[in-house]
Design brief:
The longest helix has 15 residues, at about 140-155. The protein has helices at about 40-50, 70-80, 95-100, 110-120, 140-155, 170-185, 195-205, 220-230; strands spanning about 1-10, 15-25, 30-35, 55-60, 65, 80-85, 90-95, 135, 160, 190-195, 205-210, 215-220. Helix 5 (about 140-155) packs parallel to helix 6 (about 170-185). With about 240 residues, it is of the alpha/beta class. The protein has eight helices and twelve strands. Strand 11 and strand 12 (about 215-220) form a beta hairpin. About 35% of the residues lie in helices and about 30% in strands. It has a domain at about 1-90 and about 160-230: 3-Layer(aba) Sandwich (Rossmann fold). It has a six-stranded mixed sheet with strand order 6-9-10-3-11-12, with helices on both faces.
Length: about 240
């Protein structure tokens, strides 16, 4: 599904990722953990094609095709989805307008409304959700549930979750994790960036990676996340 081959990434002429390699097969869940400043969010940005992040070396392959020259919208249309750590506000654009605009497969209007209303109830979005501007005056939990709403409407193949647990209370975290698990299947791959082992316990990934100084320094299974929770990153 995704292969990063010896990539170097810079922000403001500072090297953040150094000869970074990662392979995610179809139907796998990978978790990346690491201390602040390790380059985790930069990794999600370069996969998604953020123009503020410079890929200076290496290649990014999605379904065996290089996407390093593709724009953000081109990557999204190929089936890559990024849930932001800090979802942006889109003032002047309602959630209904936004959801109608991002759906690639055009649905009859009634079917579209039915789908949105169904997901709105499942994700416990407020009654006036569709009339409100995207993420404007939303709580932290509402913003993250809104990311999952967008994910389910887009039907991506590769899902990148950048600290999806950040700002969530226990009930919202449980709901978000349930919906991600329900969506996941053997045709989908997930990359999760997190600090917390509770996300690992919910989603039971195939691999847990530890990232430091722009590189993956250790790979293991769920037990690696448990070690981090107990002992910290230390010399892992």
């Amino acid at each position: 599904m995704l292969k990063l081959k010896n990539i170097n990434v810079q922000i403001d002429n500072k090297l953040i990722l150094n000869n970074f390699n990662l392979k995610i097969n179809k139907g796998e869940i990978h978790v990346i953990m690491g201390p602040n400043g390790a380059g985790k969010s930069t990794l999600s940005s370069v996969i998604m094609g953020n123009p503020g992040v410079s890929l200076t070396k290496g290649d990014i392959l999605f379904e065996d095709v290089s996407i390093k020259k593709n724009s953000v919208d081109q990557r999204a249309k190929k089936g890559i989805f990024l849930a932001f750590q800090y979802p942006p506000q889109l003032e002047g654009i309602t959630n209904l307008q936004f959801l109608k605009a991002i759906i690639h497969k055009k649905l009859p209007l009634f079917e579209l409304y039915q789908k949105i209303e169904n997901e709105k109830k499942i994700l416990k979005m407020p009654d006036d959700y569709l009339r409100r501007e995207v993420n404007t005056n939303f709580s932290g939990g509402e913003k993250k549930r809104n990311e999952i709403m967008q994910m389910k409407m887009l039907n991506p193949k590769l899902i990148i979750l950048d600290e999806i647990d950040s700002g969530l209370d226990v009930d919202s975290l449980k709901l978000v994790m349930q919906e991600i698990k329900k969506y996941f299947n053997r045709e989908v791959s997930i990359l999760i960036i997190t600090h917390y082992s509770k996300v690992v316990k919910y989603l039971k990934p195939d691999y847990v990676h530890i990232m430091k100084n722009g590189q993956l320094v250790k790979t293991g299974d769920i037990s690696l996340a448990e070690q981090i929770e107990e002992f910290g990153y230390g010399d892992n």
